[in-house]
Each structure stands twice: as structure tokens, then as C-alpha cells.
Amino acid sequence: MRRVLLACLCLWSCLFVSAATPQPKKGLDLPNPIVFVAQVPIPNDFVTIGATFGHHRATMSLVGRGGDLYIRYTDGSVRNLTRAAGLGNNGLQGAAAINVRDPIVHWDGQKVLFSMVVGAPEQFRYNDYYWQLYEITGLGPNDTPVVTKLPNQPETYNNIQPCYAPDDSIIFVSDQPRDGSRHHYPVRDEYESTPTPTGLWKLDPVSGNVHILNHAPSGAFNPIIDSDGRVIFSRWDHLQRDQQADGGVANQVPTTQGTFNYADESAQAARLPNRDELFPEPRAARSDLLQGTNLVGHSFNRFFVWQINTDGTGEEVINHIGRHEMISYFAQVFNDDGGIFEFISAVSGRFNERPIRNLFRPREDPTRPGTFYAIDAPEFGTHAAGQVVMFQGAAGANPDQMPFNYVTHRDTANTADQPSNNHSGLYRDVLVLSDGQVLAVHTPETRGDTNLGSRANPLSRYDFRIKLLQPAGEHQTAGAAITNGINETLSYYDPDVLVSYSGALWEMSPVELVASTRPTPHTDPVPEVERGVITQASVNMEALQQWMVERDLALVVSRNVTTRDANDRQQPFNLRVADTNTQTLGDDGQIYDVRYLQFFQADHVRGVGGTEDPAPGRRAIAQFMREPEEPANPPGATNPPGSVLLGNDGSMAAFVPARRALSWQLTDPQGVPVVRERFWLTFQPGEIRVCASCHGVNTADQAGNPEPVNEPEALRTLLQYWKSNQACVADQRDRDQNLSVNVLDAALLVNAVRDNDTSHDQNCDAVVNNDDVRRWCAGWLSL
Predict the structure, then answer these.
(1) What is the dihedral of CA 708, 714, 716, 718, to 10 degrees?
(2) Hey, what's the signal peptide range on this chain (predicted)?
(3) What does the mean pLDDT of the chain come to?
(4) Per-residue DSSP letter, 615
(5) How remote is the C-alpha of 387 from its chain's centroid?
(6) pLDDT tens string 35-54
(7) Is 249 a residue whose pLDDT tops 80?
(8) Can you tell me whether residue 195 is helix, strand or coil?
């Protein structure tokens, strides 16, 4: 009996060591340690930890417990960092349980930022758990790791996928509502009204300032800082009408998922007996709404790579690339104009010959700045695993000349029950090392994942491991794994059922522990054309921007909205400003008059679950842009709601809400839509954003002309209106109001310059400086 007991103890000891201290993986020459995540497999792919969207929640059934942060040293040895820091446990997961995700390395290569959730429930206990941001130091083989929670982050929201900005502030993804309104939580996406992250956020851990950088109604993901100092991230673009509401109507099912509209965004808003929508046009499924129109019907569902500056300005698809340069097909907007036709990449003549469907988890190649890797994967079924692709996206690159390359074979972009010899499995989390070697998370499985076990004993088809890519003909394929595998035996309540797992954990999210150069933050200066108009209008640009900051406004400007990129023939492109000679034509077809640009803002007013007992949270839908309490744009009695009048030169200028997603459309004089924007965009307080054309020009517009360079008359008109509404009265020289203009007034003015007292402004540019002193002196001498 004693021998049997000793044998059991030895076997238990060996199992314990293999779980906590994996054996070294020899024979691989990696230049630096690799930090990565070990995750308990979750076979279900819908909004779980590895999914393409909705993967941000820490719910037990969606992510489980028992994962850890690991490091693989250059000698092949592997260490459990979180366990070495005194966190987490094997076996039954309880109050001390953890799970981790999304590591990123600091510029100095000495610490790692990541997300962690702490705690698991007792059976039948439904507790709230949130991912929070942590930092770990002490990463050497002989160090004791120390894990510290970042201060001042949103405590009762999920904060994931962080990265260090060049100034050491933290940019991350959160599901905190845009303006902090708890009654909007969980914010719901534009697809199935599923809880979603709300965008990118920025945290200064020292000052505690937290604010949203981009308001993304269906979510933004995986931000990184590239060598040009831009924030590069993926975003889910789903700007279409609510298919949850449409589904019931189109199929004559009265439930329509219990969707309804609130009267406004407030907590006390009335629940309305309707689900009306304004923008964009109806989906093709709503034949009842399309009947009698010339509309084809609009659906939009893409994951693209975006860029934004670290201060939240300049948001756009990376380098303004779009559907025309990437995907293979989409429909036109109208069905009664032969000059407007569907887009088919194979006959488009575009530069990029390799179609892309989606782009997930972008990473830059440190050995080739401006070269990015990403994953083109199906939306469902593979935990965001698919094909490794590569593209050239350095700042300023012309989208017309941005090639995409297939790193792994195109077959790996899709699942296959009967795969070809070219299908080498599915890939995610690609990482280019400092010596040019490429790692990726890989499974040899080619089918979609499913639970081969049960709820209590789940078993995934996938065995995600971190592997080196190696050449395979024209492409690359998975080679050797960097570890011998991470095995664990654990259990947790989900919370009703005890879930048990024993086996290999998924290896995910590798990062290289190495120092990197802090880039200079990318900026987009106001172009000289618009800067000149502002100067000519005797407006101080900094004072104007401060005025906007104080009111949460941005200024958007276009020079000639009748000009459109030559590649876009899916919406009207023969455009004329009504009642003027300003027009830009791409052929001799139908000409469309435009007169207004109408803005829409993403308001969280769509509810689900019925008006009697609605489910928590809200979805954003497009509503007419609202003016602030002090109207900022020139009023127009005949303007469509939320619109501004175009200049006779085709220009447009408008003050718009900041830190809220916006979209827009060109309308004719009667307010009928002509050209519709297909994305949401967010602007920052004080931002002056110029888009010279409406669909911006890459190389040439529809008439073969380059980007317009005219001084926008609409901007001049707007600035004149703005000045007329300021309290300043120019050339008030009697500063002490003693009915005499003398040197005492001059002294007051000099002091005002020193103290920046704008009440003594002489030229009404909203700032007091030497220009005002010179103006006062010139006026005094002329008396």
C-alpha cells in the first residue's frame, strides 16, 4: 500500500510540475523572450473570448477561468508569470481565480501591460466581473514578478486591448458608454444588438483623465502604435438599419425582437411605440420600404484597419483606403441609372489584385516600417482565425497603390470540411519579431469549431499553438511550435454547471519582450488653404479652437463636394451645385443637383426587449444632428434637419458635435438624398478636419482632375457668421470708459495682452496680442 501511495504521489508531483513549469522547447532561435497568454479553450465562437466581435466581456460562459500570463525565454524555458506573482491557481477556480488577455510591451522592454479578470463564482451565483488593466514588472528568469492594477481606469466596465502611447498614456478598448450614461449599458451593436465595446479610450494614469477617442457604434479593437506615431486598429463597420427590427417586419413576424425607440437618450425617456429610422437607406430585405423607389437596398458589414492620431483627431480607414481598393463586390445605390453600377473587382482595373474580405488584429513589421500584417478571417466559427495577409500602409501612402499580399494560401481564409492540399489550417495573432521571423497562433484544423464534448466537459476542435511561419512554395505555413504545450487541469462554475477541463490550453496573443523606439505622435496640421481663409477672416485659429473645445464642437470643411474619387461609380458622380455653374462630371450621363450636406449623429435611442420590460442597454441609430444650445451654424428656414447649405463653389463648412459618431449625406434642394456616407466618423473637440472632396480623391476625381485646392467659400461664410455672434465690438478704444481716449487706455490694453484678457480685443479675433495694440495705436493717431 505504501508503494502504491508513493507512486501516486510521484505521479501527482510530475503532473503538477508539467502544469506549472512546462519543459523547455529546444532548437528554436528566437531573438528575445516571448510573452503570451494561456487560455482555457472555449469552443463556442459567438461573442466569446476569441470571437471577431463582442469578445470583451468577462462572463464565465464566455471566457472561463484559469488562464495565465506566460513568458518563453530565449533558452526555450517557459514560466508562468502570473502564478509566480502569486496570482491564480489550478484546480477549482474560486475567488482567487484569474484570466488574462492582450499583453503589450512598454517602449523600454521592461514591463508589460495586459488585462485581467479576478474571481469566479460559487454555483448558481451570478456575479458581475470586469476586465481591468494591469502592469507587470520583474520579467527576468530570476526576478519576482510584480503585478499592479492601473489607477483611475473605469472600474465597472471592461477595459481590454491596451497599448502605450508615446507619452506613456494608455490607449485601450472599453465598453463604457460614450458619455458615461450607465442606463445605456450594455451598449449594443448594429448587428444583433449584442453588447459591444464603444470605441478607443485614453487614460492618463497620473492625472486620472479618461476620455473617448472614437465613438464606434459596433466596436473598435486591438489598437497599436505604429512607427509613424499613429494609432492603428481594427473596427467593425456596420452602418445599416437595424436588422433586428427589420427581420420581423420582412418575415411578417410581429415580435421584431422587441425593438423600439426611446424619445431621447435620457434615463427618463419615453418608450415610443415605433422603431422609425432615418439613415441610411433601407436594407434589401425591406422590400416594403423599397417599393416605388429607385433604391437597391443597403447592407454593410466589414472589419477594416483604421488609423487615428493619439489625441483622437484624424480618424479614417488607414490612408483612406476603402472598399474599392480591397473587397471583391458590392452593389450600387440606384437601379434606374445605367451609369451607376455594381462594383466587381475583377473588372475594375484596380491596382490591388488580391481581394480582402476582413482585416483583424493588425501588427507592424518592425524590420520594415509601414508594412502591416493582419488576419483575413470569417466572421463566425473560427475564433477570428484565418489567413495571414500583408499590406503596405505607411503614412501618406496612396490607396490606389497599396498592394495586399497573401502570406498563407488564400484557402486558409475560409473553413473547409474537405480542404485542398493548400489549406494549412487557420491562423491568428501574427507577430513579426525584431529579426524578421514571423510567429502566428495556429491550428491545423480546417473546419469551423464546435463543442465535441458537453457543457460540463467542453472539447474544442482547435488546438491553438504559437508557431514559427516557414516558407511553403509561394506562401508560408506553420512550422515548429515555440513551446511543448501548456497543460492544465481546472474547473469552474459557469455558474450553474461545473465545467471541467484537463488538457492543453490555447496559446494566444504573443508579444516580443524587447525595447522599441518611441515614435513622434502623428499630427495632421490644418492645410494651408483653410488656414489662409481663417487668417483672411481675421479669426485667430487657436481662439476658435478653444471656443470649440469649450462647447464640445469640431469644424469640418470640404472644398468641393461635387468632386469624387474616380473609382467610385456606385453612387452618383455627375454632381452639380443647384442653381450654379459648379459641377464635376465623370461622363455624359444623368446630372444630379445637390444643395445641402445633411449630418446624422449616433444617438443611443434604440431599445430591445419591448416597451413594457426592456432589456438593459441601448443601440445607436442615426438621428438628425442637433445644434447646441447656442446655435453654431447659420440657420436656414428651408434647410433639411441637421444640414448646412453648400457654398456656390461646392464647398461645405459646419460645426459638428465632437466625441460622437457622425455620418452624412448630400441632398438635392428638396432634401432628397443623393450621395450617402458609408462610415461613422468621430471628431475631437477643437479639431478642424478637412476633406477636400466627398469621397476623397486618391489620384484623380471622376473628371480626371487632382484634389481641389480652392478656398472654400462656405468656410468664409461660416467664420463671418461666427464672428457676428461673438460679444466683441471692434475698435472700442476708450478702455477705462471715462469718455476720453488717452495713454491710460493704452496701458490697460498692454496689461490685457499680458493677462490674456480678451475683453479688450480690438479686432474681434477672440485673442488679445500685439496686433490689438498696433490697431489701437493706429486708431488713436488718426483721431
Answers:
(1) -150
(2) 1-19
(3) 93
(4) P
(5) 21
(6) 999 999 999 999 999 999 99
(7) no
(8) strand
Q: What distance in Å separates the CA atoms of residue 284 and residue 598, rounded to the nearest whole number? A: 23
Locate all alpha helices (DSSP H) within 275-327, ordered by sequence: 287-290, 323-326
Four-CA torsion 366, 372, 373, 379, nearest 10 degrees: 140
Q: What angle do CA 665, 666, 669 make, to 5 degrees?
A: 135
| Torsion (CA) 275, 281, 282, 287 in degrees, nearest 10 | 130
Helix-then-strand count for the chain, H and E: 11, 42
pLDDT at 534 over 80: yes
Q: What's the pLDDT tens digit per position in 194-226?
A: 999 999 999 998 899 999 999 999 999 999 999
766 vs 625: CA distance, rounded Å = 27
Residue type, 148: T
User: How far is CA 205 from each of CA 134, 167, 233, 328, 728, rounded to the nearest angstrom?
Assistant: 11, 11, 22, 44, 40
Q: How many CA atoms lie within 13 A of 81 on its CB side?
A: 32
Quote the CA–CA distance of 176 and 198 in Å, as a whole number: 7
Q: Is 381 left (phi over 0), alpha (psi -120 to 50) or beta?
A: left
Q: Where are the domains of the chain?
A: 25-242+277-512, 528-724, 743-781
- Which tens digits make up the pLDDT trace of 297-329? 999 999 999 999 999 999 999 999 999 999 999
Q: Which amino acid is at 675?
A: V
Is the domain spanning 25-242+277-512 CATH 3.90.1170.30? The answer is: no
CB within 8 Å of 4: residues ≥ 6 apart: none
Nearest 5°: the CA angle 239, 561, 626 is: 55
Q: Pairing relation of β-strands 68-72 and 78-80?
A: antiparallel
Distance CA 131, CA 174 (A): 9
* List of E strands, 377-474: 387-392, 404-406, 426-432, 438-443, 465-472
Q: Which residue has the higher pLDDT, 436 or 747?
A: 436
Could you count the other beta carbons within 10 Å of the beta carbon of residue 752?
20
- Say what angle helices 770-781 and 743-755 make with each other, to 10 degrees: 170
Distance in angstroms (rounded) separating the CA atoms of residues 747 and 211: 42
Sheet holding 553-558, edge to edge: 652-657, 553-558, 688-690
Place of cell 470640404: 558
Q: Which three cell numbers stand for residue 581?
A: 455653374
Whose CA is closest to 467, among 448, 484, 447?
484
Looking at residue 429, its amino acid is D
